[in-house]
Design goal:
The chain has a four-stranded antiparallel β-sheet with strand order 1-2-3-4. It is globular. By secondary structure, it is an alpha+beta fold.
Length: about 180
């Protein structure tokens, strides 16, 4: 297995557990199930709606850092399918998030069929009502190049306007910082 795959796999799975505006997001586990379902169904345009506004803002700021240093505009043309920085700036935070997730998954899946083989089982949820944050514990199993893999993870969600929405995690921040290094 390529070393890059070992870095990207946790990021993709974190991304895969991060919806649709009309969906029932009153339960943090349901939010995660919807996000994962949308990724498996390649409904990338719907995933940004499952992210907390603060998470989308942070993600956009991280992406802005890449755009700022990428004088060739390779990032916006290859990851965001836009030709100019002005077109990038006109994109919503949800659209930027969704497009980067989509491109990352498609690039990874060129060499591995990750998502069709992965299974996710939600184990439980801990909710901290004081700061309106829930932590959903889950296990995913997959088989890459005939190597079975399993990981136990936690995703944080925060209540916003009565809906549980995903926050960014360290894997996603790491993925964006990795892309930033590659663009220098």
């Amino acid at each position: 297995m390529k070393p890059l795959a070992l870095l990207i796999i946790p990021c993709l799975l974190a991304l895969s557990l991060q919806a649709h505006a009309g969906a029932d997001l009153s339960d943090p586990e349901q939010t995660m199930r919807l996000y994962y379902s949308y990724l498996h169904g390649k409904k990338y345009d719907a995933i940004g709606a499952l992210m907390h506004p603060a998470a989308l803002k942070e993600f956009r700021e991280l992406a802005d850092g890449i755009v700022k240093i990428d004088s060739s505009q390779r990032f916006i043309t290859s990851f965001l399918d836009v030709a100019t920085v002005e077109e990038y700036r006109a994109m919503s935070d949800e659209a930027v998030y969704a497009k980067i997730v989509e491109k990352t998954i498609r690039e990874f899946n060129k060499s591995s069929a990750l998502f069709p083989l992965s299974k996710v089982k939600i184990i439980g949820t801990y909710t901290d009502e004081q700061d309106a944050t829930a932590y959903v514990i889950y296990r995913f199993e997959m088989n890459i190049e005939n190597i079975p893999m399993e990981k136990l993870s936690v995703e944080a969600l925060r209540r916003h306007e009565g809906r549980w929405l995903l926050l960014l995690n360290g894997d996603i921040r790491g993925m964006i910082n990795f892309l930033k290094l590659k663009m220098k």
